[in-house]
Design brief:
Order of helices and strands: HEHEHHEHEHEHHEHEHEEEHHH
Strand content: 15-25%
Number of strands: 10
CATH class: Alpha Beta
Distance between the termini: 29 Å
Number of helices: 13
Helix content: 40-55%
Largest sheet: 8 strands, parallel, barrel
Strand order of the largest sheet: 1-2-3-4-5-6-7-10
CATH topology: TIM Barrel
CATH architecture: Alpha-Beta Barrel
Oligomer: single chain
Length: 291
């Protein structure tokens, strides 16, 4: 198996799309068409219906683990099955679990969440770097062994991210720049044939100037970019840190969740035919907006 960065870059070029479909089953936002007394079954029906509609259109999906975890053991079993179903349809999977710990606990998280053979199979995993360098090492080691990828939180899209990430150090640099410097050795050690690194970062579409600056700091880094659409960032904001390749934008993916998988037209659909058409339309429109 080739490295994660190369696989993702090939998938982006093949589809001419940097769109990542977020699978976030907010229970209070599920379309009425799928609502039923058993919420686990409602989420399963909705999520598994999405997979064939997204396959061939987007390069990657990003399930939000917390939304499945709230359903208990059945939700976590569903998440594992959903990942396998997506991979069987040719989709790549970024598990948005934001894991982070030290020592043997970090190693256990890495074994559970990274690689196609993991209990929660994935192509990549989101992680939290704010425990320091040693908390990242087990994840990086497992990612390299399993040809998987990592996206470490760096400058997140929420307004409260400034409380810590934008604090100025004595060197007059924001904290997230120091984190970028800390991850540089990991990133450089995981560059593959694509020219990009399988050790990437999460940076919000809501910060386009900081995306552009970070691209100069970490030119080989893959970006996972949340905040587009429902969170208020425009397409031009979301693309600010990406680069032009032979088929279009590359160097990362832009996530869309509610705007893509829960658009108003789909929520108003009264049958599966109309719902599927609405999802296809929303996917096509979002792909075009990001070209």
């Amino acid at each position: 198996m080739t490295g994660f960065a190369a696989r993702l870059t090939d998938a982006i070029r093949a589809r001419n799309s940097v769109l990542c479909a977020g699978i976030d089953p907010h229970l209070d936002l599920l379309p009425p068409l799928f609502q039923q007394k058993n919420m686990t079954e409602a989420v399963r029906d909705w999520a598994f219906e999405l997979i064939p509609l997204l396959a061939g259109q987007v390069p990657v999906i990003k399930p939000q683990a917390a939304m499945f975890e709230r359903l208990g053991p059945s939700g976590m079993t569903m998440l594992a099955s959903l990942s396998q179903a997506a991979m069987a349809e040719g989709l790549m999977v970024i598990m948005d679990a934001k894991r982070g710990d030290i020592g043997s606990t970090a190693a256990a998280y890495a074994e559970a969440w990274l690689g196609h053979e993991a209990g929660f199979a994935s192509d990549a995993l989101t992680i939290n770097p704010y425990l320091g360098r040693d908390s990242l090492e087990p994840f990086a080691e497992k990612a390299q062994k399993s040809k998987a990828g990592l996206f470490t939180l760096l400058r997140t899209s929420n307004p409260g991210s400034a409380d810590i990430q934008m604090l100025q150090s004595i060197e007059k640099k924001p904290v997230f720049h120091h984190v970028a410097d800390m991850i540089r050795p990991f990133m450089e050690s995981m560059v593959d044939a694509s020219g990009f690194s399988s050790f990437g970062v999460v940076i919000g579409a809501t910060w386009p100037d900081e995306q552009a600056a970070l691209r100069k700091m970490l030119p080989e880094c893959l970006f996972l970019i949340p905040g587009f659409g429902a969170q208020g960032a425009s397409a031009s904001d979301a693309l600010a840190g990406l680069v032009k390749g032979p088929e279009g934008w590359e160097g990362g993916v832009v996530n869309s969740s509610r705007g893509l998988t829960m658009p108003a037209e789909a929520n108003e659909a009264r049958n599966l035919t109309d719902w599927r058409a609405a999802i296809r339309s929303a996917t096509s429109q979002t792909i075009q907006a990001l070209r």
